């Protein structure tokens, strides 16, 4: 059983005990503990159940590669599942719960899966639940969904805050072990702007545990002095608890910093996502030890050899009293020495190699430990904890030659460099046969914007596994024990029969065994990427850090090809999981996207406007009075505008000034009609098409002076149209002398609409707005009352109408002045819905309703707005294409329901027969449909096959339910057909 | 995420500061052009693995359009240059030739 040792522990502070709970049980640890070290220190060897077979599982590793020891942390809104105990720092009051079992960790019904493992092989989904079809949905899927998956999900919104920050540097060094420190020192001394980041809270990496000499000093002393020097450099930034999640195009590195996980609710941002732009990235990310594949290698108490010595040296935790060490390399002997130094027992060292004479092995032998050479573990005994191991010949088939009692197994299958960052952006790997590992190929680095390598790798991450190699690569002398070569061991014993392979785990987190990968190979999965998906090898939250190489080796063996021929799966960011909170950061709620406000917004808010989003604007849809429905409010606003006077905040309307000697020529290309001939002082409605010929935007153009035009665009289209203009001016007609500027936000614009609008303007006084001076489609400038106004006589409602533009700063005051003066005239504000209904009553089209990116002006009966005189305008050539001139295109008509009802939005008019896809043919669709309080019934516009030739014909539209709606095809102008009202 | 240098304002910026605009150096065909010419102008686009010329706009910066010569495979940026040209400038061509001797050339 694991326990806390009475002395030692370089990372813990025994003066600062911390209390926490595991499944409600009170436990204690120390400051500096991880959850894993505290759990082990408290004797908790079994910490969870496995994903598929619900096998008891314990802590395997001491770092980011941990596959098993995931717990739920916290409660309620701060509950978070799948927290890796080996990298989660212990804090006072931490509440942890084990996962994936019911009803309890000790007694789990799901463990029955472990008995039926033969029926749950790789791909069992596809094989087992084929028929009957309904059973999948109603029986199998709910059961599988309930039993699969790790951890639960919090129901409440995340109460914490997160942030994102940019950083720029010449050199980013990832990893704060001795190689990273040495690289940072070198770059720092060269005067580069250096960032040095380390994912754990501690500098120095493995070296303080593994020992050795650097530059003539004890390793820890060298680390301490390196930290002092680095801290003193102003050009070096050092941060711990910051993980480099991914290396992306052109040196873009995502970093994930843990700020306040140990102090929940203290108000600081919990995590910070760094967007680091690095001129060059040096990865010093170390290496990860591989497990060995023997039967029962997942029983709680079986751990990586490096983890066993980490727990002893770093946290003064003994994983067991009697440990069997099983290895294929010399490095693991360091664990035996650490165990002996702590006063614990090494029951035996089981070395798969036939002979062992390295310095480390000799040192262990010299201390009286039995070293069994050429041996392997046939199986681990025990279920919820190790009780012993059966020893066999590694070369054999698992026949036990001996049984050894123990409560901990420390295993080492060699080391794999952490090549994730190198690989994320295209860095290639090469297979090192002697060390049985993939290492970065320095000749094929990931390349940056200039085509040269943007990353280099140092230390163990580069495959320089020993201290002297790692530091030697950086030009620093270092001494560590010489190590004899390892012998690759992918299966233990080499001839393990089915019964053992069924219990030899490769991917602990997804419960993938040696037998699963071999089955996949037999079933024809030759590509490693296919095998990965079929078996789920390496697809869990640890992304196969621990045993992907073991899996590749098994697959290669099954396929009878060398490992490099199989290759690796793709390394994908993030290196370890990052919180969705950090990805979202402040980009949520009101800050998700900016809200554009007109100068009159506060008035609308105060009046309780019901809002409609329009682009990034929010416009009043209507202004409901107390107790009034939205529909009633809209009808009231329309009736009042048509009878008295209404006011609309039209500030969102796009206002683009086009100026210059060639401005007229330019606008003639942009608009379908002629704008160069527009006299100064007059307004003209115009259409804009794209080069496909489709109608894109519309609006009224006013000519301000000889070489200046003001183009009004739709509210949503202003930015796009301005960009469109600039595109043509900069990229096609760059020799034309034209300037454009988007003045949308510089002006407030108020539409004063209705028979009493002139009277209202006259009450403000100062300008002559009579029919004679300011007739329909003219504009004028002057002082309206005290306001600097430009007034356009234009109408989108069919009524006598003025649109008044004033500098934005005067907008609210003008609105209020008009409201005050208009009170006696019955003035009311109206919203966008009244605007829509009134324009539909007049048969005016709306971009986005009557158009959808496939409609040309000719479809909408707007031929009058297409210049016959111009040889060219944008879209003209496209409108000559055969499909555009097809007489059978759907065309705009008005629609009047026979029963007065409103045709539902989006209704289609079915026609006889079916198309090639077996769908009903259609002959038209509704584009705008409203209740018209002016006409007193439903009105609509729609595009109908040969519509204009079918006036008076009644056709059917789809209704809300099965019932069809009968509508008569009519002229789209429902109100004031002769336009007398707007012209008074 | 790419970094590009805007040749108009000189700023080196992130891809998110720019808006892509498709293939560069298209020749516009208007009224009077044949159906084939117009179809080519409107729809036919190159999609090479390797050297490519693209339109970009410094949308959240100076607002100017510019052109970029880029390798779509390695993401190497050979050059960015002003949009007011109907074909890549000679120095840009030379730069690409120097780095990609096997490149078949522009057009």
TrEMBL record, chain A:
Lyase keyword on record: no
Instruction: Mark out the compositionally biased spans (Polar residues).
Output: 916-926
> Where do the segments described as Disordered lie?
904-926
Q: Which family is annotated?
A: Belongs to the GcvT family.
What name does this protein carry? Sarcosine oxidase subunit alpha
Record domain Aminomethyltransferase C-terminal: where: 891-976
Pfam name, any one: SO_alpha_A3
Cross-referenced PANTHER family? AMINOMETHYLTRANSFERASE, AMINOMETHYLTRANSFERASE, MITOCHONDRIAL
Which keywords describe this protein according to UniProt?
A: Oxidoreductase
- Where does the record place the SoxA A3 domain? 503-586
Oxidoreductase among keywords: yes
Which segments constitute the GCVT N-terminal domain? 601-870
Q: What Gene3D superfamilies does UniProt report for this protein, alphabetically?
A: 2Fe-2S iron-sulphur cluster binding domain, sarcosine oxidase, alpha subunit, N-terminal domain (3.10.20.440), FAD/NAD(P)-binding domain (3.50.50.60), Probable tRNA modification gtpase trme, domain 1 (3.30.1360.120)
From TrEMBL, chain B:
**What name is this protein filed under?**
Sarcosine oxidase subunit delta
Domain of life (superkingdom): Bacteria
Q: Which InterPro entries match?
A: SoxD, SoxD_sf
Listed Gene3D superfamilies: Folate-binding superfamily (3.30.2270.10)
What is one Pfam family matched by this protein? SoxD
Give the species this sequence originates from. Thioclava sediminum
């Amino acid at each position: 059983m694991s326990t806390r040792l009475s002395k030692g522990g370089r990372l813990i502070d025994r003066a600062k005990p911390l209390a926490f709970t595991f499944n409600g049980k009170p436990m204690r640890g120390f400051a500096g503990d991880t959850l894993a070290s505290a759990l082990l220190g408290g004797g908790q060897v079994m910490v969870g159940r496995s994903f598929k077979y619900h096998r008891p599982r314990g802590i395997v590793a001491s770092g980011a590669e941990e596959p098993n020891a995931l717990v739920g942390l916290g409660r309620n809104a701060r509950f978070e599942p799948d927290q890796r105990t080996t990298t989660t720092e212990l804090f006072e009051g931490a509440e942890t719960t084990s996962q994936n079992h019911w009803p309890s960790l000790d007694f789990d019904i799901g463990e029955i899966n472990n008995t039926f493992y033969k029926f749950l092989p790789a791909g069992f989904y596809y094989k087992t639940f084929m028929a009957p079809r309904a059973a999948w949905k109603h029986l199998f899927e709910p059961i599988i969904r309930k039993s699969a998956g790790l951890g639960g999900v919090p129901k409440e919104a995340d109460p914490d805050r997160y942030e994102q920050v940019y950083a720029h540097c010449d050199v980013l060094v990832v990893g704060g072990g001795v190689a990273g420190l040495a690289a940072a020192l070198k770059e720092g001394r060269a005067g580069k702007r250096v960032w040095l980041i380390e994912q754990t809270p501690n500098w120095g990496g493995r070296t303080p545990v593994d020992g050795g000499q650097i530059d003539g000093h004890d390793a820890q002393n060298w680390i301490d002095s390196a930290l002092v020097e680095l801290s003193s450099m102003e050009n070096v930034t050092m941060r711990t608890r910051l993980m480099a999640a991914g290396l992306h195009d052109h040196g873009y590195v995502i970093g994930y910093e843990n700020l306040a996980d140990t102090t929940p609710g203290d108000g600081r941002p919990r995590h910070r996502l760094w967007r680091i732009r690095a001129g060059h990235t040096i990865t010093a990310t170390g290496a990860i030890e591989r497990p060995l594949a023997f039967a029962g290698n997942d029983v709680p108490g079986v751990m990586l050899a490096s983890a066993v010595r980490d727990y002893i040296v770093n946290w003064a935790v003994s994983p067991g009293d009697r440990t069997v060490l099983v290895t294929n390399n010399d490095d693991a002997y360091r664990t035996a020495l650490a165990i002996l130094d702590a006063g614990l027992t090494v029951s035996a060292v089981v070395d798969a190699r036939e002979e062992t004479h390295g310095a480390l092995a000799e040192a262990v032998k010299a201390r009286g430990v039995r070293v069994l050479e050429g041996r392997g573990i046939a199986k681990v005994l025990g279920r919820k904890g190790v009780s012993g191991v059966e020893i066999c010949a590694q070369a054999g088939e698992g026949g036990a030659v001996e049984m050894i009692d123990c409560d901990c197994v420390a295993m080492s299958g060699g080391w794999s460099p952490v090549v994730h960052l190198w690989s994320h952006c295209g860095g290639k790997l090469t297979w090192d046969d002697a060390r049985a590992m993939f290492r970065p190929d320095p000749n094929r680095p990931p390349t940056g914007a200039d085509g040269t390598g943007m990353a280099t790798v140092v230390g163990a991450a580069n495959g320089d596994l020993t201290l002297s190699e790692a530091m030697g690569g950086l030009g620093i002398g270092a001494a560590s024990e010489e190590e004899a070569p390892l012998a690759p061991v992918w299966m233990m014993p080499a001839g393990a029969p089915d019964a053992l392979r069924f219990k030899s785990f490769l991917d602990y987190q997804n419960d993938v065994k040696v037998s699963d990968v071999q089955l996949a190979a037999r079933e024809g999965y030759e590509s490693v990427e296919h095998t990965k998906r079929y078996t789920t090898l390496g697809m869990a939250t640890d992304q196969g850090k621990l045993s992907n190489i073991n899996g590749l080796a098994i697959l290669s063996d099954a396929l009878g090809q060398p490992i490099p021929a199989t290759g690796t799966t793709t390394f994908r960011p993030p290196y370890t999981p990052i919180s969705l909170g950090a990805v979202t950061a402040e980009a949520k709620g009101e800050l998700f996207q900016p809200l554009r406000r007109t100068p009159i917004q506060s008035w609308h808010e105060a009046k309780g406007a019901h809002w409609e989003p329009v682009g990034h604007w929010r416009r009043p849809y209507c202004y409901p009075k107390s107790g009034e429905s939205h529909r009633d409010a809209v009808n009231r606003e329309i009736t009042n505008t048509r009878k008295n006077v209404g006011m609309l905040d039209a500030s969102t309307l796009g206002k683009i000034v086009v100026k210059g000697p060639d401005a007229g020529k330019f606008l003639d290309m942009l608009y379908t009609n002629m704008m160069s001939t527009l006299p100064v002082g007059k307004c003209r409605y115009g259409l804009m098409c794209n080069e496909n010929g489709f109608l894109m935007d519309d609006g009224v153009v006013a000519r301000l002076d000889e070489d200046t035009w003001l183009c009004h665009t739709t509210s949503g289209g202003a930015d796009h149209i301005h960009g469109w203009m600039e595109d043509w001016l900069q990229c096609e007609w760059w020799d034309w002398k034209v300037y454009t500027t988007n003045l949308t936000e510089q002006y407030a614009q108020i539409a004063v609409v209705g028979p009493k609008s002139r009277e209202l303007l006259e009450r403000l006084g100062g300008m002559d707005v009579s029919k004679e001076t300011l007739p329909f489609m003219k504009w004028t400038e002057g002082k309206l009352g005290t306001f600097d106004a430009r007034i356009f006589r234009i109408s989108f409602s069919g009524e006598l109408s003025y649109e008044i533009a004033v500098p934005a700063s005067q907008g609210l005051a003008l609105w209020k002045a008009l409201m005050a003066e208009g009170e006696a005239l019955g003035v009311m504000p109206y919203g966008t819905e009244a605007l829509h209904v009134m324009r539909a009553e007049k048969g005016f089209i709306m971009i986005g309703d009557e158009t959808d990116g496939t409609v040309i002006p000719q479809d909408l009966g707007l031929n009058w707005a297409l210049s016959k005189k111009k040889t060219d305008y944008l879209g003209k050539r496209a409108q000559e294409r055969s499909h555009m001139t097809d007489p059978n295109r759907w065309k705009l008509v008005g629609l009047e329901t026979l029963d007065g009802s409103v045709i539902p939005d989006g209704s289609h008019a079915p026609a006889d027969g079916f198309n090639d896809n077996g769908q009903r043919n259609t002959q038209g669709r509704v584009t705008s449909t409203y209740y018209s309080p002016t006409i007193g019934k439903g009105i609509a516009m729609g595009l109908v096959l040969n519509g204009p030739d079918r006036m008076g014909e009644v056709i059917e539209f789809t209704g809300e339910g099965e019932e069809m709606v009968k509508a008569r095809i009519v002229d789209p102008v429902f109100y004031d057909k002769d336009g007398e009202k707007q012209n008074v | 995420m790419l970094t590009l240098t805007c040749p108009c304002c000189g700023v080196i910026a992130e891809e998110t500061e720019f808006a892509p605009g498709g293939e560069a150096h298209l020749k516009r065909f208007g009224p009077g052009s044949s159906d084939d010419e117009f179809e080519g102008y409107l729809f036919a686009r190159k999609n090479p693995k390797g050297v490519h010329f693209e339109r970009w706009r410094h949308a959240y910066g100076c607002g100017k359009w510019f052109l970029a010569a880029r390798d779509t495979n390695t993401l190497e940026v050979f050059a960015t240059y002003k949009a007011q040209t109907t074909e890549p400038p000679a120095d840009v061509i030379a730069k690409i030739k120097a780095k990609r001797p096997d490149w078949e050339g522009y057009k």
